[in-house]
Amino acid sequence: MPWGYTLGLLDRYLLRQLLGGFVFVLLAVIVVVLFTQSFRFLSLVIESAATLKAFLWLMLISVPTFLHIIAPVAFVIAVLFTYQRLMADRELVIMRSAGRSPLQLAAPALWLAVVVTLMMLAQSLVWAPWANRVLVDEQYAIKNNFTSLLLRPGTFNDLLPGLTFYARKRDSEGAMEGILIHDFRNKEKPTTIMAERGLLQAVNGETPKVIVFNGLRQEFNRHNKKLNELTFSNYTMSLEMLKNRKVDRVRDLRELPLVDLLMPRAASIEKTGRNNSELGNELQLRLATPLLSISFASIALVVLLTGDYSRRGMQKRMGIAVGLIIAVQAAFLWLTNLLEVSGLFILPLYGVLLLPLVLCLWRLGVLSSWAVLFPFLHPVSGATR
User: Would 138 be classed as within a structural domain?
Assistant: First the structure.
């Protein structure tokens, strides 16, 4: 018979079921997480008078920041649901009667777990750090946008050290009423401006200005203790110092690109305020987290596919699998926290993640049947492939 380079019918059938379930669960979890985060983003957008476009961009860019965290959970849910349904419909019994071993039944899920792990590894190392940087920068830009600071009614806003702006209210078109501007950057001559109404003039490429109408300007000279007053019908205040201003901040480790973790530089340490050991631990966490996909899948497969088949016992097996998965997740989180104490805990961390895979392959008899994991290297049999 000719050598085959494609998976058999049953393998492709199992892959379709697993992949469809994984995509469905993953999208559902993404929607749930986005829904919970939407309140925080919506509050930020409303308080800063940002646009709907900014809100949608925050929602979109936040997905890569948690995708590698929820993907293992979504994948193991798909594995549990798929094999439980196949057992309930007695499809697994038929496949086993046709000569499929537990390892052959598990092979499609293991291969898909490897693919998911590799994809999440790339996402964890490259995509997630980029998304974290963009997301945090965007939030800072919205919070510190001078137009949003001026348009927060009923709040004393410190635009700069020594410059405070207040507006009692504003209408739907952005016109403000009850304006107070206190400028004490010049300690010798602090200035206060009070006006009935005003508006912000911020045209792209031009210096932003605040134009106030029907008000009073007071300047106090500390040398001669004299108060100078000026009434005006309109007064313009330039905000050149707020144009394109940048806010310095300490970067989180999750925002650092891969190259900064592989080759720590003084600039990277300065940006985060962390040392080389902490940068190394962050790199190990990015490498380890995607392994949860194959670890969780291994637990589900070895519990569901080994031993005698019984529909009444399937619920018990599902409970055992879920309990073991929760235990591995808890151990992973515990060891992750211990990494802050010592980098030596990285070894037991990898042990917790890889032990389920080793036990799964051993329990499924992979040592004596290694070839079934590579069906594309063997002749295709019509009955079982």
Answer: yes
From 221, 242, 263, the end of a domain falls on 242
Separation of alpha carbons 281 and 320, rounded Å = 32
- Its pTM stands at 0.73
Task: Please check whether residues 47 and 129 belong to one and the same domain.
Answer: yes
Do 306 and 238 sit in the same domain of this protein?
Answer: no
Domain match, 96 and 172 both: no
Instruction: Give the strands of the sheet with 157-160, arranged side by side.
Output: 157-160, 163-170, 176-183, 191-201, 209-221, 226-238
| One pLDDT digit (tens) per residue for the chain, 385 residues | 333 334 678 888 889 999 999 999 999 999 999 999 999 888 888 777 677 888 999 999 999 999 989 999 999 999 999 998 888 888 787 888 777 788 888 889 999 999 999 999 999 999 999 999 999 888 887 876 656 555 567 778 777 778 888 888 877 666 788 888 888 888 888 999 999 888 877 655 566 778 889 999 988 888 888 888 889 888 887 776 555 555 556 677 888 888 878 876 665 566 666 677 778 888 888 999 999 999 999 999 998 888 666 656 678 888 899 999 999 999 999 998 888 777 788 899 999 999 998 888 888 776 555 545 555 444 444 334 3
Same domain, 69 and 19: yes
Instruction: Tell me, yes or no, whether 206 and 351 share the same domain.
Output: no
Number of domains composing the chain: 2
Q: How many Å apart are CA 382 and CA 343, to the nearest integer? A: 52
Structural domain of 282:
9-143+252-377
Residue 337 backbone phi and psi in degrees, to 5? -70, -35
Distance CA 317, CA 87 (A): 12
